[in-house]
Amino acid sequence: MIYQGNGITVDTLENGLAELVFDLKDESVNKFNQATLTELGEATQALAASDVKGLLVTSAKDSFIVGADITEFLSWFAKDEDGVIADILSANEMFSAFEDLPFPTVVAINGMALGGGFEMCLAADYRVMSSKAKVGLPEVKLGLFPGFGGTVRLSRVVGADNAIEWIAAGSENRADAAFKIGAVDVVAEPDELRDTALHLLQRLATGEVEYEERRAAKKGKLELNNIESMMVFETAKGFIAGKAGRHYPAPVEAVKTIQKHANFDRDKAIAIEAKGFAKMAKTAVAQNLIGLFLNDQKIKKIAKGHTKQAADVKKAAVLGAGIMGGGIAYQSAYKGTPIMMKDIAEEGIQLGLDEASKLLSKQVDRKKLDVRGMADTLNRIRPTLSYGDFGDVDVVVEAVVENPKVKKAVLAETEGQLKEGAILASNTSTISITDLATALKKPEQFCGMHFFNPVHRMPLVEVIRGEKTSDETIATVVSYAQKMGKTPIVVNDCPGFLVNRILFPYFGGFAMLLRDGADFENVDKIMEKFGWPMGPAYLMDVVGIDTGVHAQAVMAEGFPDRMKQDFKTAMDVMYSEERYGQKNDHGFYRYETDKKGKPKKVSDEKAHELVASVRQQQNELSDDDIINRLMIPMCLETVRCLEDGIVDTAAEADMGLVYGIGFPPFRGGALKYIDDIGLQAFVELCDRYSELGKLYEPTEKLREMAKNGQTFHG
Question: Has 450 been annotated as catalytic?
Answer without folding.
Answer: yes
